[in-house]
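Justification of computing resources. Each target in the renewal requires a structure prediction run like the one illustrated here; the chain below, 136 residues long, is used simply to show the kind of job we budget for.
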Amino acid sequence: MGGAGPRRTPRLAARYAAEWNLPFCALSMFVELRAVVLAACEAIDGDPATMVTSVAQVVCCGSDDAEIARRAAVIGREVDEFRENGLCGTPAEIAGKLATFHDAGATRCSLQFLDVDDLDHLALVAAEVMNETARW
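Resulting structure tokens:
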């Protein structure tokens, strides 16, 4: 189940879902709402440890600044804003940001690629970012 509702969504997730997903959010929002979802599990005598918590993020990865800028432009995003509000940067930067979500309790992250024709983008993330995060 996904969503950012602060009252109803956590209660519904606790009662009916095996996974709660927060799409396209800042880390601080994930941390805050994840705590609410886990508290809702406890409120119905559920085990919060059994709730999978995940995020979804738009990704823009490049081997260098020029490649990052080109990919961001194709999907209408500014690099500085995107780095702040998404997964944008080099493979190492993206792996680092994913690590912060992982450390905050995200069991998985769904990556959204907006330029579906850029298969090299997908290959770069698969080869370099996923390799970095595989140890989790």
